[in-house]
């Protein structure tokens, strides 16, 4: 049940029907309109002290995870990310990746996951299609310097994520440094926004041409697919899910979202390696994964 729409890029925004920048909000209890951040209130209220993410030695409870998402969204808002802005991300799996996925959606942004296995040319074509306002990378991104030196590089900001650090990112833009000292109130305030046409993610597929093409996927499409997985597989809050599929792929995204909605625990490894996966399964008593 994946809903797709053609992409039109203009001035760092995807315009698909409604006026770009239109800002709409929902209260914590409003589920009449689908939004991937609706899982946050459940994690906050039902899993506040339970571990919901594990990445190496780093563990976060439901409350800590939600606070991380809202804190990141707060800073991105101060930076200037608005509904309809595209945020591209090229990184290995990590708990930070999950937080970025939800923080961008919280502001009505559109996440564009880029496959870390791609060459510079493949990445360039994909990014040219969506014209991101912000690019997020980690050490797996080998083509960033080439991209920055190319004529198409138009992103206003770049974030480098250090997945192993206790600090989530550093921003290569002076204006961001000024937002880092802004105090963040740690009470729950779920007032999320939507992008035009309720687009949540742009997933890339090569199809038959071999060139990346973006497909827009709505909040409702992601949630319907996740609910189907919960119903068919039977995910519950007692599950421990190992992220072996990359979150740049729709399979990794939708399965991760299904587990967020169920309220289970996420175990994240950078990418699939047999020994690392086996170790994570044994140490964390993993109950489910996809390959």
TrEMBL record:
Keyword Ligase: yes
Keyword Zinc in record: no
Enzyme Commission numbers on file: 6.2.1.26
One GO term of the biological process aspect: fatty acid metabolic process
Short name of one Pfam family: AMP-binding
Residue ranges occupied by any AMP-dependent synthetase/ligase domain in the UniProt entry: 47-289
Highest taxon above the source species: Eukaryota
Alphabetized UniProt keyword annotations: Ligase
InterPro entries, sorted: AMP-binding_CS (IPR020845), AMP-dep_synth/lig_dom (IPR000873), ANL_N_sf (IPR042099)
MF-aspect GO terms: medium-chain fatty acid-CoA ligase activity; o-succinylbenzoate-CoA ligase activity
Enzyme class: ligase
The name this protein goes by in its record: O-succinylbenzoate--CoA ligase
Protein's organism: Opuntia streptacantha
Native organism taxonomy: Eukaryota, Viridiplantae, Streptophyta, Embryophyta, Tracheophyta
């Amino acid at each position: 049940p994946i809903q797709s729409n053609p992409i039109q890029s203009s001035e760092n925004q995807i315009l698909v029907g409604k006026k770009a920048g239109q800002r709409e909000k929902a209260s914590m209890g409003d589920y009449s309109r689908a939004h991937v951040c609706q899982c946050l209130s459940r994690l906050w209220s039902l899993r506040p002290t339970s571990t919901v993410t594990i990445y190496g030695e780093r563990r976060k409870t439901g409350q800590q995870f939600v606070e991380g998402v809202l804190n990141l969204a707060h800073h991105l808002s101060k930076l200037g990310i608005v509904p309809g802005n595209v945020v591209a991300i090229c990184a290995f799996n990590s708990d930070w990746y999950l937080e970025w996925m939800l923080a961008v959606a919280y502001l009505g942004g559109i996440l564009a996951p880029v496959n870390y296995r791609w060459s510079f040319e493949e990445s360039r074509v994909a990014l040219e299609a969506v014209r991101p306002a912000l690019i997020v990378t980690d050490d797996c991104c080998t083509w960033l310097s080439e991209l920055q030196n190319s004529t198409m590089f138009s992103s206003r900001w770049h974030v480098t994520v250090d997945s192993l650090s206790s600090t989530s990112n550093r921003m290569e833009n002076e204006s961001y440094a000024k937002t880092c000292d802004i105090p963040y109130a740690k009470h729950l305030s779920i007032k999320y926004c939507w992008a035009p046409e309720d687009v949540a993610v742009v997933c890339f597929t090569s199809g038959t041409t071999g060139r990346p093409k973006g497909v827009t996927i709505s909040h409702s499409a992601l949630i319907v697919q996740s609910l189907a997985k919960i119903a068919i597989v039977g995910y519950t809050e007692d599950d421990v899910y190992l992220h072996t599929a990359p979150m740049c792929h729709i399979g990794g995204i939708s399965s991760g979202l299904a587990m967020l909605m169920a309220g289970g625990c996420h175990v994240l490894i950078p990418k699939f390696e047999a020994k690392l996966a086996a170790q994570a399964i044994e140490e964390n008593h993993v109950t489910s994964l996809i390959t």
